[in-house]
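hey can u check if this looks right to u? its 430 residues, i copy pasted from the old doc so theres a chance i mangled smth
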Amino acid sequence: MKIAIVEDDINMRKSLEIAMSDYKEFEVKTFKNAKDALKSIDDSFDLIITDINMPGMDGIEFVKALKGKFEIIIMTGNATLQRAIESIHLGVKDFLLKPFDVDTLINAIKREDKIQKVKKTLTQNSDKSSLSGFLGTSKALEATLNIAKKASKTDASILLLGESGVGKEVFASFIHENSPRAKKPFVAINMAAIPDNLIESELFGFEKGAFTDAGEAKVGQFELANGGTLFLDEIGEMPYSVQAKLLRAIQEKEVRRLGSAKSIKIDIRVISATNANLTDKIKSGEFREDLYYRLNTIPLNIPPLREREDEILQIAQKVLEQNCKKYGFTLKSFSDDAQKQLLSYSWPGNIRELISVVERAVILSDNDKITPNELFLEHRGLTKERDIATMEKELIQKVLNSEGGDIDKASEVLGMNKENLAKKIKIYEL
């Protein structure tokens, strides 16, 4: 297993090099900062271990730059709830608090090694869509779906709002499938996953010779979605320079490929999504106000998993069954204690995190009964009720202070509805 360790503290870095040299099954390469690591890390690496607090580019920015290509373990000496949540949103599987002994790190690496080996043995004809769609139901979900059903019958632009991992693409697909355009294409594109210099050509296409590497013409996503629905995820990450062209395409219902003088008529319905505060981006000049209002004809707020508690065990059970089938295991089940821990955890990474945790537990459990030990939620430092309450209180107080006590703005930043936030403020006597 080839591992990259990114750590700016030379003593910590050398200590890890020496300690891990005893494990011949691991090939370890260390880097003193994230920028050096980005220059050298390639597809031959199996795992990245990185500190959060580093000069220049910190660990969170580093993880974002890796764009989900690698499995990652975060280590830090002064973790906060907010930083832990950020890393979980980005798909980080383990979050180790310094100081930790080498055995703790080695066990985390061996867990990841086992998971990767099981995944590599998976047959190519596995059902890739088995984890799509709604996996549970709750009153909060049904209320949101009712609004989505009404909106789907129209051609109005819809802006999906909510935290990372709540299932915005699933909602977008649901709206398309319940619309008059259901038999036409549904095309999804993630703004955050495409380099800024490629977004324009990806959306609008290009003609042969339009730029140096354009050896042949390419159809853009707008043309591919013609007649159907185009879903623009992470719309807040779209470069400002491209936003005017997107606005024109939506208003004029036509696009022009790069390098072409000819416009192409299109007929699409646009659904966009973000977990960013677009109002703040407008104020800072990062997002066009006219584009915001064009995309936000019908806003749809998707509640986080912590407000959809009835779904947690339903989703966990469904994902457990699907992964047992997917990896060829006999059907497993959750112990009573595991179920209690699933319900008591706050799920800052929402459904995406729950799916990841259950899949890992299925792979790592040696018996047919999954216990809290296989869930590894305590390793995230977020499961003890007293700790959650303390960190949540600190986070709410910090956000309230930064927003000048404005509950509307604070609720938007926290991804918490105003009623729940008001209750928390009263409970914590803030």
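Residues 2-120 form a domain with the Rossmann fold fold (CATH 3.40.50.2300).
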